[in-house]
Amino acid sequence: MQLVTNKQGLNGTIRVPGDKSISHRSIMFGALANGTTTVSNFLKGEDCLSTIGVFRALGVRIEEFPDKIVVHGTGWDGLKRPDETLDVGNSGTTIRLMLGILAGRPFDATLEGDASIGKRPMGRVMLPLREMGAIFEAKDANFAPVKVTGTKLQPMTYTLPVASAQVKSAIIFAALQADGETTIIEKEKTRDHTEQMIRQFGGAITTDGLTIRVNGGQEFQGQNVVVPGDISSAAFFIVAGLIIPNSKIRLENVGLNPTRTGIIDVVKEMGGKITVEQTSKAGDEPAGTVIVETSDLKGIEIGGDIIPRLIDELPVIALLASQANGQTVIKDAEELKVKETNRIDAVVTELSKMGVALVGTDDGMIIEGNQTLHGATVQSYGDHRMGMMLQIAALLADSDVALEKAEAINVSYPSFFEDVASLYQ
Ligand code: S3P
Predict the structure, then answer these.
(1) Whether the model pTM is above 0.70
(2) Tell me: the pLDDT tens digits for 154-204?
(3) Which residues bind phosphoenolpyruvate (predicted)?
(4) Minimal CB count within 10 Å: which of 41, 168, 237, 409?
(5) Binding site members for phosphoenolpyruvate
(6) Ordered alpha helix ranges (H), 204-357
């Protein structure tokens, strides 16, 4: 696909689509609850539709309307053994969280996904769940397809070796089915949407610093869930507004959960003009308006416990850094290697093609500032966030940019190219 290039003056308002992490969890808790759950501003991207498909295959009735999703919850005991292999598509969140849910159900099921899913590590989830008694068989002991043989689970105390909300959430779902209290100690604080939604659906879970405690045997009640916009989708426009000359972009209904707002802190530290105003709070999921305008930026060092708060934004933050004055160092981000693609290699390879001076390291990247972006043929590697980052990069490029595998953006932001176009017309 030929990308739009050589633009100045992006101006206007965007309402980014619903948050991907919260949309997945709204279907999961809706299905596991008793009664009906209505979800508005649900993200109808391919990943969240995979979660709907999986629960339908488990016997849950889910209706899709233009403005909402209605989940007819079955409760834990209403899930049925699927007749078919459960297809998670490209979604790491679906497969990892489903491993925790299915581990304690009294039937067996097999989960599989696309080629990218087949390369992503599942051992990090299977290892702790096995300590609770879970039974799995996986390709080469670590990869999808994974067969789960549901069984009775025991509680445990577990210290997470990686900062991963997916692993944490899978353990929480298993713990909700175990006989007693499970304690999970996080390495660093990661997104807490699972914990928030347990409380919203009438359950209990306690968090004390990095320690989480949850009891098994909990029942949930159906709710009305309002999904805030996805800050990880807003991130592309935050960066566009800052680096493209003569721009001012207003982003409405952006989710502002503090476990997700690392990009705002980074932009402030780089000297970017950004204002944030919280306008609503659904449960503990705040949302608000973010306004950015073209700014003079300075390079910084990004590492430590901010990394989980901006992990999905790092590809576009690398682009942001290329337009700052001075060097930016991203470290402690080795998790980038096990995303939809190896995002250290992918960002370095593709931005290099456009003329950016940057190098990959073991745990991040070193990016030179004040870079001029040139035309090139680039590719997304089938990774939605790579595809969107490259379109924002192309807006600054001085000649044609072609993007291969552009359709990857449908995973989290199907209207992305239309929303970009709305800002320069
Ligand atoms: C997610 C957690 C993160 C993130 C992913 C969504 C979630 O993954 O990158 O896009 O919804 O829990 P990890 O838990 O592997 O860091």
Answers:
(1) yes
(2) 999 999 999 999 999 999 999 999 999 999 999 999 999 999 999 999 999
(3) 20, 92, 120, 166, 343, 385
(4) 41
(5) 20, 92, 120, 166, 343, 385
(6) 231-243, 262-269, 314-322, 343-353
